[in-house]
Amino acid sequence: MRIGLITPEPGHPLLAGATALLSPRHRVEALDPGTATELPGPPADVYLLKSRTPRALALAREAEALGAPVINSAAATALCQDRTAMAELARGAGLPFAATRAHASLAALAAGPPLPGPVVVKSRHSRRGDLVARVDDGARLSALARQWAGEPVVVQEFAPNSGWDHKLWAIGDRVFAALRRSELSPGGRGPTVPLALDDLPPGWADLVRAVGEVFALDVYGVDIIAAGADGGGDGDGDGERAGTGGEPLIVDINAFPGIRGQAGAPEALAALALHRAQALGRTSPR
Description:
Shape: globular
Number of domains: 3
Strand content: 15-25%
CATH topology of the largest domain: D-amino Acid Aminotransferase, Chain A, domain 1
Distance between the termini: 5 Å
C-alpha cells in the first residue's frame, strides 16, 4: 500500500513514528507542498494532510478528485482555519463553544465602543504565529491595534478558569489528553503535563468525539477550559487541581495538530491510515 504525506515536515515526531510503523510493509511518500505543483503520478491509496497552506489544500483537493481519501479532508481542514465559521458550526450543533464575534480588523475594533470587561482577541484566521491575547482595557487594545492594525479578528468573552488549558486530541476513536498553562497566563505556557483519560471530567472524551463528528475530522485537537473552575485563573498552580469544578468550554479546534509525546499516537495514526485505505478498497502495491 502507498501512503502519502502532504507536509513540509515528514520528520515531525508523530509522522516519523507512524512512518516507522508503516514502512516495513508499505511505501510512505512525502510530498512537500512548498515545492510540489501537482501529485506525482497515480495517487496514493491514502494521504495524511499535515499542512494548512493554500498549496497543501490544493494538493489534497486534487487527490480527493482522483478518488483518494485524505485525512483530514481539504474542506474540514480549511474550515478549522476560520474561527468565525468554526464557532458558527460548533454552536449551531449545540457544542459548548465560546461565543465568538467577528470584526473586519483590529483597528476597527479599537475604534469602536469600549469592550465590556475582559475579552480574548484572536486572529480570525488560525495559523502559526497568529494573535491570541487577553484584553482588559482600552490601553491594551490600542497597543495591539498598533501592531496588528489590519488583522481580521474575533472576540470571545474571557471566562474565569483555572489558568490551565485541557489539550485534548483525537486520532480516529482514540483520545489523548494533557494539561498546559494557558498562553494567556502571565507566566506563559510552560511544559505540557500528561493527563490520563480517567482523570478527565465525565463526558469530556465523548465531547471530543462529538467535535470530530460535527467537523468531519479524523485527526484533530480540541482546546477546552473548565469555565468557572477554581485554581485562581493565573496558571501558576502545579496542574493537579487544574480545571476542577468547572463546565467545559471549547475555545479552539485544530485540524491535524502535533500530538507530541502521547504514547500510542503514532500507532493510532498508522492504523487509521490503513483502515481508511482498506475501507475504500485501495491497496496498490508498494
